[in-house]
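Structure tokens please, single chain.
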Amino acid sequence: MTAISSSPADLCTEDRMVPSDTPGIGLHLRRKRLKGTDRVPAERTVLFMHGATFPSASLFDVPLGGASFMDALALRGHDVYALDVRGYGGSTRPAEMEAPPEAAAPLVRTETAVRDLGSAVRHILEESGIDRLNLVGMSWGGSVTAAFTAGHNELIGKLALIAPQWLADGPVRIDTGGALGAYRRVDVHAYRQRWLEAAPEGRRADLIPPGWFEAWADATLATDPAAGDSGLIRAPSGAVLDVREFWAAGRTVYDPGAIRVPVLLTHAEWDVDVTIGQAQALFLRLTAARYRRWVEIGEGTHMVIAEKNRRQVFDAIASFLEEDDQGSFRPPT
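Here you go.
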């Protein structure tokens, strides 16, 4: 990847709250772009959407190895946004998340996240004076961005998916069984074992470079003001209920055949949360996409974007976003 600028110090970062479609619920939106940049064309405007457990700052803006995923794209001249839907990160947490989880039903189903994504998309388009933007969604975020795109192709230029959910042919690790409350408490430091156990035993030692997990864990804990010294963050349970009622029950949340924009699917070989079979099944259903591409990353898990081979994902997505409709490189304007 040849960057326009080489240092995150050349970027400006903005954090803001934008309104959702629900009174009292604000959505946290982070923006990164090169300093001195005034207007960026639609084809270089991109919005990231997080997964079911960790918010956008945790997945897309931890500067591992000197730069985050958001940094990597912004340094190439992209106008980069990252959204937290309600209940996650810097966005408003529903009142039920301040009570014990068993006191309410699972919060933030996929349909709610799609609405929140729509609010963010329309805010960016109106503010920037553009008619469409690009989406990058990871895991559950892949479902959210794909579902939105299927219903609003006219607002989306390209769709990049990182290990997106699809119909499961076996147990889904995020659903541990039992009753679901409004939200889950996730032990961030204990997540390391779950993360590494997806890789072959003899290949785990160098999967995450030294210091990276600790930096990621610290950044993740900082996204929840209730974490304190507990090591726990809160994550809404709605996406897990959708796994039970849709993905593990043979029902889809959206129709991939309704997506007409170019699609890139990226996946890593050791991903046990979204298997290679699931990735293939989804790819084959993207029949109306203007064009589609599948990039398989060797030696990576579901969290490949925070592992040693993360730059391969960055490069694949940057190349996809920067090519024209014929697949040729399109230089920044």
